[in-house]
Specification:
With 470 residues, the protein is of the alpha/beta class. Helices cover 55% and strands 7% of the residues.
Length: 470
């Protein structure tokens, strides 16, 4: 066989494989198109796209299906969309963002459409346009995909209703959520930023407000990022993306720790360094952080972070330790696990109370010893830490549930966090809440607690001994 024939023979299998791959891709695209246009099955689409990039030609219709606005009525039909005379902040933002997200020949028309949509959105809510609210940044990415004006408005409306953080003011709950998640996953970095008096509000406000569109270069970065966002259908995904961004920049934090102002400004602009090739890894890491985080924080903060203006004043239903670390409900602890998480339960009540009733898998660490007998406490703490290290589980602290014991537990938890133990949480409501839950199960609740038979007429006392019944 001559060399030319040999080359043809070698090329034939490669050509066949390429042809088969093209056929598979065409069939895959056909199936997705049918799911979008016929069944509009969002979950089936998510399964089809698992591990694969979203096809740009179908992005618009896929977003509509997974956001559940496909075939919704056109809310703009018959409406006169307001366009202001002269140069206004709204017009300026629309022009600048249309230039970023649209081709040069289409930018002017897109800017007018954005101005009309945002003007209508504000007018229908009785709210004047304010650049600090980030509306234009959240609409602009929709201008980069082929959608009708009505479909763009419907998608934007869902984004604003479901995904956009509503309160970005000073002390807003969204910043507390971010800090708690950072403390859970990287207490060393969180403690360092705390010591520098740098909080999430100092660098992450534009990340959260714009779902990263403020800083990212343009549609080649933002659209794949939002693909993952909508496919995850997770309001809190922006917080996990922010965790990835900050933790990946921890070396930068360490280098500039002596210049807090420069550090805060540098951190804020970190997303500007993202390229299209970074998005897949970033989103996979964000999904990992989500999987290894107790999901109960969502219920605690969903209303205060994403709720309507009239409901924002409601304080989050968090534990007394809510600003120290994450809290988990007693139901989760009774299961001993949540998804991929298994909890290493540390019962900090006095020994007598622990002996009287405790969960079989709880480790005991008497918090009262920290002040009363510090040497013994250090030995007990070392024993618990050794067991924790070998368990690969998430440490969760159980206290009495009484307000007067909060200080003791707070010191123990703070010591764990200062030693950079990750994944630290406390049981919401403590042992008092746990006992109430067990009692609610009736006879079936007896399997959860190991109880000691006490001498008649005695109960475990608050100080660690026993108290007589009155």
């Amino acid at each position: 066989m001559d060399s030319e024939a040999a080359a043809e023979g070698a090329a034939a299998p490669a050509a066949t494989a390429a042809g088969e791959q093209l056929d598979d891709t065409a069939e895959w695209l056909k199936e997705i198109r049918e799911l979008c246009e016929v069944s509009m099955d969002a979950e089936a689409i998510r399964r089809k796209l698992k591990g694969r990039a979203m096809p740009p030609s179908l992005r618009g219709v896929i977003w509509q299906v997974v956001m559940r606005v496909r075939s919704k009525p056109d809310a703009l039909a018959g409406q006169e969309l307001p366009v202001a005379e002269g140069d206004t902040p709204l017009k300026q933002d629309c022009v600048a963002l249309a230039a970023r997200y649209c081709e040069a020949g289409a930018a002017a028309e897109a800017a007018l459409e954005m101005e009309g949509i945002l003007g209508f959105y504000g007018r229908s809510r009785g709210v004047e346009y304010d650049p600090s609210l980030g509306w234009a940044e959240l609409l602009a990415p929709f201008m980069a995909i082929p959608l009708s004006k009505g479909d763009r408005y419907n998608c934007f409306y869902v984004l604003m209703s479901k995904y956009a953080v509503k309160n970005m003011g000073e002390g807003a709950p969204c910043f507390e959520v971010f800090r708690l998640l950072l403390m859970y996953h990287d207490p060393e970095l969180c403690n360092l930023l705390d010591s520098l008096k740098i909080g999430p509000q100092d660098f992450a406000a534009t990340w959260i407000r714009s779902m990263f569109s403020h800083w990212c270069a343009g549609p080649e970065v933002v659209l794949p990022l939002w693909d993952a966002y909508f496919l995850a259908e997770d309001q809190f995904f922006v917080f996990f993306l922010s965790l990835v961004m900050l933790i990946n920049g921890r070396d930068y934090v360490m280098q500039l720790a002596e210049s807090p102002e420069t550090l805060a400004k540098g951190l804020e602009s970190l997303p500007s360094q993202l390229g299209a090739d970074d998005i897949t890894d970033m989103c996979e890491l964000a999904e990992h952080f989500s999987l290894v985080t107790p999901q109960s924080f969502r219920a605690d903060y969903s209303t205060s972070v994403f709720g309507a203006v009239s409901r924002r004043a409601t304080a989050p239903a968090v534990d007394m330790f809510g600003t120290l670390c994450l809290s988990v409900p007693v139901e989760t602890i009774l299961r001993h696990s949540e998804g991929a998480i298994k909890f290493f339960l540390i019962d900090t009540r006095p020994l007598a109370q622990y002996d009287a009733a405790h969960l079989s898998y709880a480790w005991h660490l008497d918090a009262t010893l920290m002040m009363d007998q510090p040497a013994i406490f250090r030995d007990e703490l070392a024993r618990v830490e050794d067991a924790l290290a070998s368990s690969m589980q998430h440490p969760c602290f159980l206290h009495t549930g009484e307000d007067e014991d909060a200080g003791q537990l707070g010191m123990v938890v703070s010591q764990f966090l200062q030693k950079h133990h990750r994944y630290v949480s406390v049981v919401k409501g403590g042992f008092a809440a746990l006992e109430r839950r067990v009692a609610a199960y009736g006879d079936g609740g007896s399997k959860y607690l190991v109880r000691q038979q006490l001498p008649q007429g005695l109960l475990p006392g608050r100080g660690g001994g026993f108290a007589a019944l009155e």
